[in-house]
Please model this.
Amino acid sequence: MPSPSEASPPPPNGGYGWVCTLCVALINANTWGLNSSYGVFLAHYLSNDTFPGATYLEYAFVGGLSISCAMLVSPLATLSIRYYGSHVTLSIGIVLETASLLAASFADERQIWQLFLSQGVCFGFGMGFLFVASVGIPPQWFTTKRSLANGISSSGSGFGGLVYSLAAGAMIRSIGLAWCFRVLAISCFTVNTVCTIIIRDRNKIIGSRHLLDIKLFKRPEFLLFNGYGFFSMLGYIVLIFSLADYANRIGLTASQASVISAILNLGQGLGRPPIGYFSDSIGRITMAGLTTSLCALFAFVIWIFAKSYAVLILYALFGGTVAGTFWATAAPVAVEVVGLRDLPAALNLEWLVIVLPCTFSQPIALQIASSTGGYLGTQLFVAVMYMAAALCVLLLRRWKVDQLNEIARRDGYHPNGISMAVSEFEAHEDTARPTGRMTEWKEFWKWRRI
Model:
């Protein structure tokens, strides 16, 4: 049997990895970015009564379904990667996403269930195959620049949301809804196909375990990671789908509301690379905790008091920079929790965990707003959910501090300067986990890069 270090050589920390990172960014722009423009379609459906008799709640479920189905299909996408590879899995996603947009263009205006199946379920499945197959690739190519690469790749969804929000609105007005869907289908098919041809993974080199290993749920630190994602999504989904509606509620025009959505996506695109860059400098778990805390703080001190166009733009821009922190930090933080080889298994379990919040967060928010007659309850809900997510990261950081201290104690390394091959370090992490759960809080407040 080869030693772990022979089976898992250190990542190149650059090189062709930057090409793969750009490809993943473009894939995110043409999946999550396009999905973020759903607010534009929602505004069109409501203002033109496109599907007579359909309610706001039904339209809200279309947007929620696309995200939850993307997460729900992750086990199937994982099996596809395991048996057929990343390129086949990406290709399946391209076919499903293209088919969904074409089908939506032919949806009968008297049958909203066709929109549920096309723009909701089928688009979500396509997005899921593309996302699961690509999200773990950038971390495979980097060590010290892993979070920066992940931040750059995840920023694609923000910039894609900005572009598609503006483009979709313009196309709906100029060429109509049906042809808008068809143009989007052609665009996404072309970009995603080129990226699939170019991208390369390192699954065989590092020995990635593409399994749904439910034993990970026995680790308290992994449960904390799950909590981070669960609570983050309860806040995030409400924010991206509700901000435009909130703008309308305070008297802004439909055009101004669409600009607010575009600014929010711009903030996400601008914010995620710095999150990744500073994560590599001050620590991935630490950065996740700080920026998630800022999400709650901005909701408390800016959004609640945003009653004008200018203040809401300010919130959309600054709140947007940190709103999608989970997507920018999920893979790098997961590596810190379970190691590089178990990253695909851990992420796919996490995608299943966040299916429920992705599906029901927006309906919950709408119910709160309708029952209270205002948005204050919804705003507090978003802020509290981000606070809960930050608390999970705080506890996760405590566990990581304990683990590093245990490795240092056993092997004579300084806790702030542990430096060894990735595979060797992961072996040490496995042996340090049980003790790391039992140590004290006293070391937590000492500053270190974690």
In short: Residues 376-411 form the longest helix (36 residues).
